[in-house]
Amino acid sequence: MGVATGAVTKMDDQDQTLSGQAIEDPQIDGVDSVLNALPDGLVIVRDGRAVFANQAFRRMAAGTKDPVETIGLLSDWLDSRDTTAISNYLDLCLEGEDEGGGESVEFRLRDTRERCVWMRAEGRRVQYQGGPAVLLTVIDISRYQHYSGLPAESLEVFHEIFNLSPELMAIIDRSDGSIVDVNPVFLNTFGRRREDVIGRTTEALNIWSEPIFFSRFLQEMKINASMSDVPTVVRTRGNVIRHFQLAAQKIDSASRPLLLMVGRDVTDDLAETQELQRGRDEADIANRAKSEFLANMSHELRTPLNAILGFAEIIRDEHLGAIGNRKYREYAADIHHSGSHLLAIIKDILDLSKVEAGRLDASFSWIDPSNALSMCASLIARRAKEGGIQVTTEIDDNLQIEADERLIKQITINLLTNAVKFNRKGGRVTMRFLQTPDGGARLSIADTGIGMSTEEIRIAKRPFGQVNRGSAEAQEGSGLGLPLVTAFSEKLGASMGIQSTPNIGTTVQVTFPPHKVRSLTDDRDDGDDIFLI
C-alpha cells in the first residue's frame, strides 16, 4: 500500500466499522468527543490518506508546515524522507489479522522553519468505513529523538537529571546554533517561556553580554569534543548581569549534531573569592608593614644597646681603673649579660623581618664549612661545660658546599644553642657533617635532651612558638631559632628535618642536594666567583 498523492474522495458513510464494530461517523458528536478527549494522538489511514485525526494529533502537528486542519493526504504533512518507511510500515500492519505492525515506527512532520517534529506511532489493522485501514497511536518524541541512541532506561535517567538539575542546561544544534531543548532552570534564569526559546538561537535571545561570545564558543567546539570552566557573562531575568562558567559536550545523534551545554552561576563565588583576595592583600600589606616596622625598630634599638654593652664591658673589666666595690662589677656583668641576650633577640627579629619581607640576601660561593662548624662548636663549648654537657663533632673536611658562610654559621649556632639549652646535666650533643649516599651532604645535630612530641615540633617551627612542658624546663628565648633555621636552609637550597622523642632527645638535619656539594679531590675549578641572590 503506497502513500497516495491524489485528492481525497468521499467515503460511504454506511460502510464504517472500527476493529470490526460499527461506529458512527467520527465527525458526529459522541464518538468524536470520545476520540478527541484521548491524550494520545489517533490517526486512521487508508490508501495513503488520513481519513481521521483526533484533536491530540492535531495539536502535535500544529507547528507543521501544512497543519492537519482536515483529513487529507499523508504527503501533505509527512517529511519526504520518511514516506517509504511509513508506506512499508502501513503495508506490514495491513498484512496481519487485527495484529500490530510489530515494532513502532518513527517519522517526521515538516514544520514552519523547515525543521522536523518527530513522532512515534504504533499501528494496528482495523475495519473502517467498510474496508481495512490502519489505526496509528501517535506520541510526540521531538525532545527525545535527539538521544535515540541511548537505552530507554538511560534516556529516562538523563531526562530526570536534565529537568531536575540545579544547573542551567540546554541542548543546542551545532549546525546553526538553534536551541533544541532547555531545562526549567534555563527558563527561570532568563525569564522565558519554552515556546519563546525552542528553535531560536542564544544570540537572538540576547542573553550574552558579549554578542559574539557564543559564535566563538561554537567554533571552539568544532575542534574539541568537550570544554569546561569557560567563563562568560550573561544577561539574566530583568537584564541583570551575572557571571557563569560553562561546560559543553558534543552529542552525535541520529538526526543532527547536538551540543549539551551546562552553565553554573558563579557570581557569588567570584564575589567571595574577590573578598578573600582583598583580605589576603590587606593581611599581606599589614604583614609587610609589621616587618618593615620591626626591621626599623631593630636598627633603632641596636645602636643604643651596643653603647650600653660597650660601657658595661668597660666597667666590668675596670679598663679605666679599679672600682673598689665588687658589687659594681657584678652589676656591670649582669648588664652586659642581659644586654647581650637582648641584642641576640633583636638580631633574630631583624633576620625574621628580612625573611618575611623577602629581603634576606645570601652571597653564594664554594666554601669549606669545616672551619665555620668548628668555630661554632667552640663558641658553644663554654656554655655546654657549665651545664655539664659533652659536645662531640665529626666533620668531613674533604667536602665543599655552595652556600653563604654567614648563614651556615647562623644555622649551626642556633641548632647547637637549642641542643645545649634543652639538654640535661650529663647529656650529650653530637654534631656531624658528612656526605650522603647520593653525593649530597648533611649537617646533623643530635642531643639527649627533653625532646618534643609531633605537636610540639609544629609549635616550635612557628615564629615565636615556644614549647614549655613545665617550669623546670622553661628556658629563656625568643622562639625564633627553628623558624630561622628553616628559612636559612631554604635560602641555601637545603632542606631541614626534625626527629624528636619526648625524654629521649632531638635530631635536626640540614641536607644539601648533590649539585650543591663537591669533594676537594674532584677535578673541578675552585670557583671563587661570588653571586648574590
What does the model show?
The protein has 533 residues and is an alpha+beta fold. It folds into 4 domains: 13-140, PAS domain (Beta-Lactamase, 2-Layer Sandwich), CATH 3.30.450.20; 152-265, Beta-Lactamase; 281-356; 363-532, Histidine kinase-like ATPase, C-terminal domain (Heat Shock Protein 90). It has 14 helices and 22 strands. A 6-stranded antiparallel sheet has the order 5-4-3-8-7-6. Strands 10-9-13-12-11 form a 5-stranded antiparallel sheet. The longest helix is centred in the middle third of the chain and has 51 residues, at 267-317. The radius of gyration is 45 Å and the shape is rod-shaped. The termini are far apart. Residues 1-29, 65-70, 470-474 and 523-533 have low confidence and may be disordered.
- The percent range for strand residues is 25-35%
Low-pLDDT sequence parts: 1-29, 65-70, 470-474, 523-533
Helix content: 25-40%
Overall structural domain count? 4
Number of contiguous helices:
14
Radius of gyration: 45 Å
Return the average pLDDT rounded to an integer.
Answer: 78
Number of strands: 22
CATH topology of the largest domain: Heat Shock Protein 90
Instruction: Give the distance, in angstroms, between the N- and C-terminal Cα atoms.
Output: 91 Å
Largest sheet: 6 strands, antiparallel
Give me the CATH architecture of the largest domain, please: 2-Layer Sandwich
Secondary-structure-based class equals: alpha+beta
> How would you write the strand order of the largest sheet?
5-4-3-8-7-6
Classified by CATH, the class of the largest domain is: Alpha Beta
**CATH homology superfamily of the largest domain:** Histidine kinase-like ATPase, C-terminal domain
Shape type: rod-shaped
